[in-house]
Design a protein that fits this description.
The chain starts with a helix and ends with a strand. A hairpin with a 5-residue loop joins β8 and β9 (208-217). The chain is mostly beta strands. Strands 1-2-3-4-5-6-7-8-9-10-11-12-13-14 form a 14-stranded antiparallel barrel. It has one domain: Porin, CATH 2.40.160. It contains 4 helices and 14 strands.
Length: 299
């Protein structure tokens, strides 16, 4: 009963913005406030703590930590590092999602104890340029561990990515495959592999970068389109916004504002010479909010 309640809560609040169905909630969550504010768009934007990106994405050497607060007292904490490695770039990040505590009862409705529930995973990635061509490839792996009282799940997940940089047009085109791997322990998990087609465009006459990501799920006849933008107000301040076709499925007809703002996000970032701070939030069609804070530094 408790296990059913746990996945009901997690699926409702964590996964609605990203996927229609999955057997393992931690595979599709926000871990970066930057991607949160763009409503899931920005697979070609790399953050040290983001798991929603193309592993071939180019990045600067940096460190960041984030805290994402979901409804129902669910929270995600992450810390990550991006660095140069063997003629390319590498990253490593540690993530934890706490689902809170639950009361357990036996068949006679007697309290048996208080139980905690969480998912923890370690993610590593490597990307490299292909000779002198403006083409990059990358791979990432994530080792997951889920604990709920005495029940455990262990699995490893991989992602592959490729992108081409068209500098003369200010455009990047990318393709990536996510959520395929192997389970080692626990109740059977239904993976939901996906293919993501991404594009980013830096406008010539405006300090604005647009992101678009089209996701196709292997086990569902459905496509999701995510669109986001990163507007540079000045050398220190950025505003990021985004939305997706999830707006339709999130629409609960509770009001005009809820319908318009459902499955949308907005965020604000400040960057000094070496330090950056970003706050963002995402709104469900049910008017429930997800908030995120990310702090980092160049190294």
């Amino acid at each position: 009963m408790l296990n059913h309640l746990r996945y009901k809560i997690i699926t409702l609040f964590l996964l609605c913005p990203l996927v229609a169905k999955t057997g393992y909630p931690a595979l599709d969550v926000f871990t970066s406030s930057i991607h949160l504010s763009m409503a899931g768009a920005g697979y070609l934007y790399s953050s040290p703590v983001s798991v929603k990106n193309n592993p071939s994405s180019v990045f600067k050497r940096s460190f960041s930590a984030s805290l994402i607060k979901y409804p129902a007292s669910i929270s995600a904490q992450s810390a990550g590092l991006q660095f140069d490695f063997k003629n390319g770039g590498g990253s490593i990040s540690l993530h934890n999602i706490s689902y809170g505590t639950f009361q357990g009862y036996d068949e006679d409705a007697q309290l048996t104890g208080i139980y905690g529930s969480s998912d923890t995973w370690l993610r590593t990635s490597y990307r490299r340029k292909i000779l002198l061509a403006p083409i990059y490839y990358g791979v990432s792996s994530s080792l997951y561990s889920s604990n709920y009282n005495s029940h455990k799940v262990r699995l490893i997940i991989f992602a592959l990515g490729l992108h081409i940089k068209l500098s003369q047009y200010g455009t990047v085109l990318g393709i990536s495959a996510h959520n395929f791997g192997k389970q080692f322990e626990g109740a059977k998990v239904d993976f939901l592999p996906q293919a993501t087609f991404s594009i980013s465009k830096k406008l010539t006459h405006l300090p604005l970068t647009l992101y678009s990501d089209l996701i196709s799920y292997s086990q569902a006849k459905k496509l999701d389109l995510f669109i986001g933008s990163d507007f540079k107000i000045n050398k220190n301040i950025n505003i990021r916004v985004g939305s997706s076709t999830r707006k339709v499925s999130h629409n609960t007809n509770q009001g005009l504002m809820s319908s318009l703002l459902g499955a949308s996000g907005i965020g604000f970032g400040y960057k000094s010479e070496n330090i950056f701070i970003h706050y963002g939030f995402f709104m469900h069609g049910t008017t429930a909010f997800v908030q995120g804070l990310e702090i980092g530094t160049d190294i």
